Amino acid sequence: MTELLTAAQMRALERAEIESGAVTGLALMERAGQGVVDAIFAQWPELAAPLSADTEEGAAADVAQSRRRAMVLCGPGNNGGDGFVIARMLKARGWAVDTFLYGDPARLPPDARANHDRWAAENPVSLLVAANVQRAPRPDLIVDAVFGIGLTRPVPPEVDKALAAGGDGRAANLPAIRRVAVDCPSGLNLDTGMVQRGGGPVDPDFGRWPATVSMADLTVTFHSPKPGHYLGQGPALCGVLKVVDIGLGGDALERGMIGVPPDADRVRLVEPVHMGRPLPGRIWPGALIAKARHAGHKYDHGHVVVFAGGVGRGGAGRMAARAALRVGAGLVTLVCPPAALQENACRLDAVMLRAVRGPEHLGDVADDRVTGFVIGPGMGVSERTRGFVRSVLARRAGDRDWRDPVVVLDADGLSSFAADPKSLFEWTHARCVLTPHDGEFARLFPDLAPSRRGAMSKIDAVRAAADRAGCVILLKGADTVIARPGGGASLHAAAYDRAAPWLATAGAGDVLAGLIAGLSASGLAGDLFNVVEAAAWLHVEAARSFGPGLIAEDLTEELPKVLRGIGL
Ligand SMILES: NC(=O)C1=CN([C@@H]2O[C@H](COP(=O)(O)OP(=O)(O)OC[C@H]3O[C@@H](n4cnc5c(N)ncnc54)[C@H](O)[C@@H]3O)[C@@H](O)[C@H]2O)[C@@H](O)CC1
Ligand SMILES: Nc1ncnc2c1ncn2[C@@H]1O[C@H](COP(=O)(O)OP(=O)(O)O)[C@@H](O)[C@H]1O
Ligand SMILES: [K+]
């Protein structure tokens, strides 16, 4: 797992390192600039060679001269300071470099000021306004060093215009302009993944490519990725994400992230990576898949009960049930209203089937050996659903909380409590997992929904929700956030080289609910939070493994291949 640092945590780390005397701010800025330059040439090795009329690109440019050219756009803080270091380093490699500054050089913070002055002693610096940028020669490379982690308010319109004025890197018949962002494309908030416009973060429904942020082809960040690189609009705006080491230390923090419950104030990225290196899948998530680790009787691996909807509405429950069985539950029973028994019987073999009339009859079909429930998918919003949810949540193992059956509450199991979420939270307990999508989350936690939570990040919103509900919450999306009471949180991103757009398909969430129950219901299962992380990861792996054309049923059938692929 990789630690994701907020802007405040990154600053604190930098400050501590500087105050300890281990390094100066100026040295860090130099390393940051060097890291960006190295990343540029690693990404585009062709830029290391001078532009030549012999190449297709050179011919298109109709080059009068062979020097590569960069446009470096600098801001009023240390992000701008990085920009001046990059300008100097590119010039030293023979590049023509045009620099632009937003703000007053006299008010730059000391390290940025030093790098500005060193550059400005020999080179002109223009004011960062659209007219100046447009007048400059078309570059091979634009460096966006206007705002980084210090963005505190919406980008001023004149900066917006200047950022957009550098030419369209994708225009036909012209040589490419590569766009590299220092820390982030300016305007992206690295704590929230939102673009700040007038009046606060942009409404996430507004669209994924707001005109006010120029998308980067490459984003280079320092020491560790930040939540905003993975949340919300971040992945769509950053292009390729590279993290460069600037010698800040901090490995010690990451050391304790695999296989242990989350720390209260450190967010981790769910992935089989340990201290920057890939981790064999059989170590993570393999260690959390009980059947792969322990021999035993089917009852050792848990009995999951999945509720299905009424006539014609059983598909969601059936998919969740099959996923629970495939991922390792010892046995799985689907329960449905009597009228739907025949329909379900035609569709099920390994999954067992029982009819149940109402919550008061649940005991007839589910004895106290049931270790996990999935309740909600396809059930309909109703008092009947509420009744089943309450009766399932009331099944406790006395003072042995860790033996309480796991309850995965999804879909209509959540929406049925929209009118009175508190009446649900009176029952939810530490062995519950709520798996809402954004709409269901907004019904249960209206004040924490994107439209109401203001500058709060999705991560902090889910943390607050987990505190309120007293259980684990997984809020779905390409940026899935998992949190538990007390602040522990992780982010599971289906982004960059793990993008899984085919997963946006009806029923994919039902399969996830089944995976969580199937992995957590075993008597030999790991910590619930860790298991939920592993389920989220396997879900996306199955989607990626199947690829284009995926529908929800395929996820479960692809799972054996994924499990084998991680070495089980
Ligand atoms: N913190 C660290 O550990 C390191 C930081 N470095 C660089 O330093 C950057 C952070 O520097 P800063 O903290 O100075 O922050 P920034 O350079 O991101 O921006 C801060 C400045 O922008 C102004 N500002 C913020 N939002 C604005 C808006 N919407 N309109 C107009 N002005 C606005 C602020 O008043 C302040 O002057 C990082 O992104 C990174 O590029 C690197 O040099 C290496 C190490
Ligand atoms: N663009 C996307 N990239 C990756 N995963 C996605 C994307 N869109 C949705 N998902 C995932 O697909 C699942 C959809 O679940 P949900 O919204 O509950 O749908 P349903 O109720 O139809 O099953 C969730 O696990 C979510 O995280
Ligand atoms: K930037």
Automatic annotation (TrEMBL):
PROSITE patterns: YJEF_C_2, YJEF_C_3, YJEF_N. NCBIfam families: yjeF_cterm, yjeF_nterm. Pfam families: Carb_kinase, YjeF_N. Its EC number is 4.2.1.136, 5.1.99.6. Binds 1 potassium ion per subunit. Belongs to the NnrE/AIBP family. In the N-terminal section; belongs to the NnrE/AIBP family. This is Bifunctional NAD(P)H-hydrate repair enzyme. Homotetramer. Residues 281-566 form the YjeF C-terminal domain. Residues 10-254 form the YjeF N-terminal domain. AMP binds at residues 476-480, 509. It comes from Sulfitobacter sabulilitoris. InterPro entries: Carbohydrate_kinase_pred_CS, CARKD, Nnr, Ribokinase-like, YjeF_N_dom, YjeF_N_dom_sf. Its cofactor is K(+); Mg(2+). Keywords: ATP-binding, Isomerase, Lyase, Metal-binding, Multifunctional enzyme, NAD, NADP, Nucleotide-binding, Potassium. CDD domains: YXKO-related.
